[in-house]
Amino acid sequence: MSTPVNSDKSRQGKVFEAKVAKHFKPLQETLPVQFKRIMDSREAGNLVRSTEADFEFLVKSDLPGRPFRFLIECKSSDKFTEFSSCFRSMIKPQQRALMMLAERAGSTGYYLFYSSQSNEIEVWRASVLLPEWPKKRQALTKHPLLRIAPASLHSLAQLMATKPSEFVD
Fold first, then answer.
1. CA 143-88-76 angle, 5° bins
2. CA distance linking residue 117 with residue 12, whole number of Å
3. What's the CA gap between 26 and 28, in Å, rounded?
4. CA 36 – CA 104 distance, rounded (Å)
5. For 144, what's the count of Cα atoms within 13 Å in the CB-facing half-sphere?
6. Which domains does the chain have, with CATH numbers?
7. Is 148 left (phi over 0), alpha (psi -120 to 50) or beta?
8. pTM of the prediction?
9. 148 by DSSP, 3-state: which?
10. Which of 129, 147, 114 minimizes the C-alpha distance to 13?
11. Measured between alpha carbons, how far is residue 60 from residues 14, 35, 57, 98, 151 in Å?
């Protein structure tokens, strides 16, 4: 069952995406990075197919023409406090497959999960989370890379922009 565009759940997700963009996008003004929104199928009136992430973040590397490519997918919940409890229902199979293909091609995927109950953001590496896709009742044994307060989003963005090699395998 899809969530209506004007629902509280959808609005909370868009608010979180806007907060992420607020901290990543301004870095383009002073650092050799590019941050852009990837239009999803809902925003395009279902005229385009689903995408692997909400944002693409390119960071200059020492290899000319070969930037670090981070894909960032934002998820949020007012019901769950940990992404491990709800990621199966929040990541659609097609989106999972697209993220895994992007990772295989050299991108680095991240899931940022905000829980309004805990007021924390969990930072998950896609390469850790997606292959583990346990069966419905099986517990996820992995843990997020980071847990941060929303006020630390700027620091996360700054670190990814200035020390990108620390965010790849």
1. 75
2. 13
3. 5
4. 21
5. 19
6. 8-167 (3.40.1350.10)
7. beta
8. 0.86
9. strand
10. 114
11. 28, 12, 10, 24, 26
